[in-house]
Amino acid sequence: MFDALVIAYLFLGGTGAALGGLLGLLTLGQVLGLGESGRSQHLNGLSSGQHRRFFGFGNVLAAAVCLLGAVCLLFDMERPDKVLVLLTSPNTSLVAMGAYSLGAVLLLSALAGVLHLHRRTLPPAAGALLCAAQLVAACVTMTYTALLLMGFRAVAFFQTWALVGLFFCSSASCGLALATLTGMVLRVFPLERGHERTAAAEAALSVLEGLFLVLFMIHAHYAAPQAFAQLATGPLAWAFWTVVVGCGVASPVAAWALPRFVRGYRLHGGLSPALVLLAGFALRFCVIAVV
Description:
This protein is an all-alpha fold. Helices cover 77% and strands 0% of the residues. It contains ten helices and no strands. The model is unreliable at 35-45 (pLDDT under 50).
């Protein structure tokens, strides 16, 4: 019913939007929280150069990931020329909403990235508006990835709002993981305070994702028992329990908890975010593969 391009779109679109939304949220907090005497302060003690590189390249990466997701969706369409129809004849359908929100995240993230990299500063009101629009578009895109599946009314497996919460939390977790890895590549992370906060946020998101996953599986048990069996004990059980649950839900909690409760224990900072990204793709693969 669905192919690999749809899975890639669901993962890339949600992850790219989440990364853009996260950076927009952080920037919005700075814009709204800075007074006249605090304009030179930056997130978690970052220098001006580190701040510019992290938010600049991070936003460009978010735009690039969203673009890859859009390309996957374009190639999956039986008639790619329908994109022109959406652009020339705006409407309020679910498909149009998803296309517009993904395009908005792409463009706004690219604009924010260019502004950071070229040291351009917008007036506070304009900067806050840009960040708020980026955040709203990201949230719509992250929600749409689940609403797209719920639109297939004949598939009982998809007909639960738990899927929206599950995909939203998974996308947010993947976006935060990608931000963490970006900071590490740029040598902005790990800063002790910032890394601790990131690990705590990732753990909290994984717990929420786990709760929605439980609700989703309860729904599947009653509404689509064959699909439930494939995930719980069938051919997809290895991917579901090992990758989705183990890497996506358990590993972030372990990465946050173990250094606090096991004296002298240190976990490689990039391992948990990489596992979260793997689990995000595996989640969408499992949800799509059973139908």
